[in-house]
Amino acid sequence: MLIYTNVDMQIIYIIIGGSLVFGSMLVIGLPALIMRSRLVQDFKQNVLVDYLAEHIEGCQLEPKRGFEKDEVFAAGFIRKGNRFRFHDYMQGTIDGVDFESADVYSAQKTDKNTNVRFKGRLFIFDFHKKSEDAVLVLEDYKPQDELDYEQVDFASVEFNEKFNVYTTNRHTVYYILPPHFMKALFRIEKHPGNIGFAFRDGKLYLAIHTGRKTFSFKDLDKEGLDKLETFKEDVRAMYDLVDDLKLNRNIT
């Protein structure tokens, strides 16, 4: 037997409404499209915020806000382009750890084509290991800033095959990445998309190139309750991240 919370029921109503609007678009065109756009915004600003607030302390969701360019490229591995967009900024606290998150789009556009360099979600967590050095753990990315990095290999062949590790100080990298931490990175890496981590300036940057918007509702009428389950899985994944990486522990 399925049991739904009040927020779940609100989501169901929005989904049903989305289906009706989708059907009406075939008949009355643009007015229905505008109505659908307003429906999506209402979903984000009310229903989705309420759901997230039940699970994330102090959660705020601002669909039209995002990170500034400098904040995004401070990660050190997201490639710059001449096109930059952001949306669906979120902040809150998970298990005592403050975080910010937003969708980011970076691309290089010419007259002939558009080269998408990053399209996905960026998270910035407070990281309790303070260091003046930088450590990048990258799946397929490369360092993009001007720091003097060296690449470091570990005893684990499996880890070296999956990640490339760059650091400005090879002694720091072993402090930042003890064995249990490396195992946690493996678990997080199973998330769909190209993943990159950066540890610098007391923060952990996690970027996931998914090729899509996180809270996209163009198929809201088709996906139904599967969308609700996706939200729940994303929230659980954030809790797992904090727990796996021990971000809620002060480490000296």
Task: Describe what you observe in this structure.
- The chain is α+β, with helices and mostly antiparallel strands.
- It has one domain.
- 40% of the residues lie in helices and 27% in strands.
- It has a nine-stranded antiparallel sheet with strand order 1-2-3-4-9-8-5-7-6.
- It is globular, with a radius of gyration of 20 Å.
- About 10% of the residues have low confidence.
One letter per element, helices H and strands E, the order comes to HHEHEEEEEHEHHEEHH
Tertiary shape: globular
What's the number of extended β-strand segments?
Answer: 9
Task: Report, as a whole number of angstroms, the end-to-end distance.
Answer: 48 Å
How many DSSP H or I helices? 8
Helical/strand content category: alpha+beta
Task: List descriptors.
252 residues, alpha+beta, 9-stranded antiparallel beta sheet, 8 helices
Can you summarize this structure?
This protein is α+β, with helices and mostly antiparallel strands. It has helices at 6-28, 30-53, 69-73, 157-162, 170-176, 179-189, 220-223, 225-244; strands at residues 57-62, 83-94, 97-109, 114-126, 135-138, 150-152, 164-167, 194-200, 203-209. A 9-stranded antiparallel β-sheet has the order 1-2-3-4-9-8-5-7-6.
